[in-house]
Each structure stands twice: as structure tokens, then as C-alpha cells.
């Protein structure tokens, strides 16, 4: 599969490495970025040709799939452009920063019949898969509650390094939209459709940004389960994502990228799937690679990817409900997907 990379920043370089690691299944043929230096750096390491615009790349190269690695507010429009150019799409999280943009992309995907996957690589980590399998097999009984913690740290230089970081117009949010959304996506994946959110946010440890560096929320789900979410970029020195899922017949805990605790009254602990990759790669890197493999297989087999646009929209809708609740000082009801 011949890939074009749209966006040659830090996350773009990560995607270039993933594409390169796929071997015979993928080739990087084009890198698009307004900065010739950034694009040229990736091209020099991973191959392909550099272009200033996607339109130039689409006209010059035979491209099967496009990886969208731009600032968040640019995701949907660039993905739609790729779909109408006949390309399959894998887009970084969040799917965009508004539901209107997400819905435009969903409409374009349905119109073109192309494949679109939203990056949520933590779903592919073996211990996360174990927890989801335990839920599906009934080993935890009825799921009653969940707790997701994304207690990260970002220095002031992180926000100062790019003029779009920490802005509402382009970044769309802070600790929850850009970091905590991974943990929130896992909570939603485990507990189901959110129906009500009560939340608070704050900006406590950073200056010159328009977004939160701390968010806390209580989420009620359609099943009656209750979830708690903490997202921070102000928790020095930062901790790995922690996820706890409780049921009336068992409990499972993800911590430090491991299944740290598992108890079930009747069900056995599910086996962990094997995720292959280069030596020295960490758990989240291997999970990222596993999602790329799933995307390639989905295109090849004509099936939906494991993380669909609709899944990405549900997580985005929950993030936006958190922000609305914090802003309005009241619980917020979520509409049907």
C-alpha cells in the first residue's frame, strides 16, 4: 500500500516510522508539509518525495492511503480532500475538534465508500484487549463502574514550541482533548454509550494558553454504569495511563501498560494477544503498529477498521460534553450517536 503523509511534525515522523516498519505491506511515497525542511527530513530517512500541498502529491504520485498528522482542527477537511481524491485514510486523534467537522467527514466516508480509521492505539495493547475480552466473555459480570487516569506532565516549553498548541481555534482543548482522550476512549470502549457528563476543568500550571491543563469528570453511561475521568498535563513527573473496570463479578486494572490486577468470580483471566514488532519498541509503539496493520488489513479485506469514525466521534462528543459541563457549571446530556 502506497502512503502519503500529510503533516511532517513530531507525530508525522512517528507515522513515517510506522509505515516504514510495515515492510512489504506499505511504502511511503509522499510527504506533504508547508515546511520543506520538515518534509525533507522525513523523506531523507524514510523515502518518498516532498510536496507543499496534498493536491500536488495526489497529482504526481500513485497513492493508495493517506495519514493525516496535522493540528487537530485540520483533520476532517484534509481527510475529506483525501477521500474525494480516491484515497483511504488514517487520521490522528481527535477526529477533529467539533462534531460538525466529524459529521462532515462521516458523510464523505459514506459517500465515497472508502476506509477511514481514527488513531486510538491503546485499544491494541494486549492488557487492554484482555480487559475488553473479559467484559465480552462475562468474566466481570455486569460492568458497574470505571476509572480512567491520564496524569501526564507537559512543561511550559511544550505549549510554547508551536503557535497552535494551547489554542481553542486549532488545538480545540488541552489535557483532555489531546492527551486524556486516549484514556477516555478506553473508558468509553469498556463502558458503552455515555449519556450524561458532569465536569470541572482548570488551568493551574501553565501560562499563555487558552485551554485546560486539568479536567475531571463523572460520566453516566446508558447501561447505568458510572465512570470517572482525570486528565492532566500538570502532574509532575507524569504517570502512565491507568484504567480500572469494576463489575459485579470481577475487576481488572491496567497500570504501567500491564494488566496489574485481575479478579473474577467465575471467569478465567483471558490470554494476552501477541503484538509483534521491532526489538526495543515500547508497548504503546507496538500498539500503534498493530493499529496500522489493522488499517491495512481492513482496506485489503473490505471490512471496517477496528477504530471507526463513529468510535472517534463518540469519544470527541464526550470530550466536548466535559468542556460544556465545566463551562456551564451543570450536567450535560449527550445526544444519540
Describe the structure.
It is a single chain. The longest helix has 20 residues, at 309-328. This protein has 337 residues and is α/β, with parallel strands linked by helices. It has 2 domains: 2-121, NAD(P)-binding Rossmann-like Domain (Rossmann fold); 122-281 and 308-333, Dihydrodipicolinate Reductase, domain 2. Helix 4 (75-84) runs parallel beside helix 5 (99-112) and helix 5 runs antiparallel to helix 10 (309-328). It has helices at 10-21, 36-46, 54-60, 75-84, 99-112, 126-136, 156-160, 175-191, 283-301, 309-328; strands spanning 2-6, 27-32, 49-51, 65-68, 88-91, 116-118, 143-151, 194-202, 214-221, 226-232, 242-247, 250-255, 258-264, 332-333. The strands form 2 sheets. Strands 13-12-11-7-10-9-8-14 form an 8-stranded mixed beta sheet. The protein has a 6-stranded parallel beta sheet with strand order 3-2-1-4-5-6, sandwiched between helices. The chain contains 10 helices and 14 strands.
Q: What's the number of helices?
A: 10
Q: Strand count, sense and closure of the main sheet?
A: 8 strands, mixed
CATH homologous superfamily title of the largest domain = Dihydrodipicolinate Reductase, domain 2
CATH topology of the largest domain: Dihydrodipicolinate Reductase, domain 2
- Cα distance spanning the termini: 32 Å
Structural class: alpha/beta
The chain-level mean pLDDT equals: 97
Counting structural domains, the number is 2
Strand order of the largest sheet: 13-12-11-7-10-9-8-14
CATH class of the largest domain: Alpha Beta
Uncertain segments: none
Amino acid at each position: 500500500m502506497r502512503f502519503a503523509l500529510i503533516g511532517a511534525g513530531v507525530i508525522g515522523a512517528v507515522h513515517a516510522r510506522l509505515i516504514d516498519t510495515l515492510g512489504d505491506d506499505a511504502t511511503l511515497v509522499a510527504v506533504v508539509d508547508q515546511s520543506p525542511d520538515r518534509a525533507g527530513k522525513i523523506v531523507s530517512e524514510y523515502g518518498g518525495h516532498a510536496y507543499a500541498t496534498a493536491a500536488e502529491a495526489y497529482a504526481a504520485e500513485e497513492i493508495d492511503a493517506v495519514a493525516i498528522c496535522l493540528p487537530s482542527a485540520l483533520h476532517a477537511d484534509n481527510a475529506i480532500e483525501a477521500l474525494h481524491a480516491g484515497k483511504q485514510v488514517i487520521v490522528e486523534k481527535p477526529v477533529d475538534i467539533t462534531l460538525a467537522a466529524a459529521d462532515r467527514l462521516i458523510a464523505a466516508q459514506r459517500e465515497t465508500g472508502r476506509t477511514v480509521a481514527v488513531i486510538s492505539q491503546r485499544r491494541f495493547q494486549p492488557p487492554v484487549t484482555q480487559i475488553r475480552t473479559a467484559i465480552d466473555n462475562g468474566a466481570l459480570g455486569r460492568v458497574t463502574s470505571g476509572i480512567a487516569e491520564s496524569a501526564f506532565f507537559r512543561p511550559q516549553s511544550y505549549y510554547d514550541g508551536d503557535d497552535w498548541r494551547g489554542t481553542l481555534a486549532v488545538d480545540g482543548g488541552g489535557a483532555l482533548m489531546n492527551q486524556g482522550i486516549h484514556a477516555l476512549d478506553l473508558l468509553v470502549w469498556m463502558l458503552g454509550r455515555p449519556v450524561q457528563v458532569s465536569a470541572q476543568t482548570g488551568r493551574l500550571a501553565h501560562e499563555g494558553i487558552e485551554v485546560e491543563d486539568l479536567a475531571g469528570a463523572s460520566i453516566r453511561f446508558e447501561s447505568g454504569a458510572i465512570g470517572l475521568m482525570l486528565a492532566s498535563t500538570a502532574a509532575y513527573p507524569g504517570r502512565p495511563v491507568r484504567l480500572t473496570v469494576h463489575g459485579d463479578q470481577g475487576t481488572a486494572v491496567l497500570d504501567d501498560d500491564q494488566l496489574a490486577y485481575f479478579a473474577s468470580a467465575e471467569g478465567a483471566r483471558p490470554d494476552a494477544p501477541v503484538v509483534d514488532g521491532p526489538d526495543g519498541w515500547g508497548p504503546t509503539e507496538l500498539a500503534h503498529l498493530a493499529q496500522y496493520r489493522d488499517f491495512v488489513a481492513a482496506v485489503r479485506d473490505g471490512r471496517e477498521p477496528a477504530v471507526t469514525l463513529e468510535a472517534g466521534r463518540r469519544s470527541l462528543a464526550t470530550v466536548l460534553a466535559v468542556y460544556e459541563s465545566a463551562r456551564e457549571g451543570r450536567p450535560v446530556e449527550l445526544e444519540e450517536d
